[in-house]
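Box S1 | Example of a co-folding query
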Amino acid sequence: MPRETTLHPYEPDDDLDRDLRPQRMADMVGQVKVAERLRIVLDAAQKRNEPLGHILFDGPPGLGKTTFARCIPNELGVSVQLAVGASLKAPKDLLPYLTNVEERSVLFIDEIHRIPRAVEEFLYTAMEDFRIDIVLGEGVNARTLNMPLKPFTLIGATTRAGMLSGPLRERFRYREHLGFYEVDELTLIVRRNAAKLRVEIDADSPREIACRSRSTPRVANNLLRWVRDYADSKANGRISLEVAEAALQMAGVDKLGLDSQDRRYLETIIRVFGGGPAGVEAIAHTMNIAPDTLTDEVEPFLLRTELVIRTPRGRTVTPQGFAHVNMPMPTSDRNPDGRQQSLFE
Ligand code: ADP
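Box S1 (continued) | Returned holo structure for adenosine-5'-diphosphate
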């Protein structure tokens, strides 16, 4: 099914992230409580000369899980290996990482909820006792080789903490949840990153970009890059409020941070389903979009901003949702409870 382009991709693009990603904890903006706690455990581990306990970061995409995971080894002055859960399909896929760990180094596994059970079980002894049991041969000839590992720190990141099994979750000594960012924090991120990109920006534009960034630093970075491209192409490389607004309007990103696909979702429920309730499959088919795309990429932000609510009977646009897309709420055909009558009731 066709996918519309969007300036809100939550999937990391490592090349793009690299030059803007803070390298040290002191450069990170916001997440104050998380950073404070991490500083304490880092300090304590260094004072005791011990490896840092395993850490699990969870939270929606683009909020800084990978950034924290990369800053921590820099703070400790140790090496880091990076792995992604989806590519660890069998225990043997973990072997190169585990055999390469150095004393107190960090192994980072992104999207750790995607590792299969067999790999997870293999990790248990690695995490707990710093050893792995390798089975060599098959059948009656099989024997288990016990291999010690250097003490290391596993940092896991997940957008779906609920999908992690209890035993794996419990093997992390520290669990940190990353929440959404305030506009002031995103404004500071945009201002700093404009300086890193060496683009001239006026006093008001960082806030304008921040307001439309869905409380998410990765989105703020993507919007800043787009506004910079626009300014380079149309405005001698200078970002003024006028230039920023024109660029964001051209990208279809509105004042609340909705893009054209988000607005089409709201308009479809209103136009075709009378504002709801409507099932996600029906909405997806009408929009000619995969239902997963709606539930994973479109709905979370609209639910968070309360433009839509999810009920057991389907999705319903709220009065704020109607107002946002400038469509009138129907006044007739109401049930006694004041709820809008759906087409399919
Ligand atoms: P996640 O791993 O949670 O999906 P990332 O750590 O990759 O998110 O963050 C995406 C980008 O957002 C980073 O490249 C970085 O530039 C920026 N970013 C994230 N958190 C912060 C922060 N606290 N301060 C400044 N920039 C941040």
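The first strand starts at residue 55 and ends at 58. Residues 34 and 176 are 7 Å apart (CA to CA).
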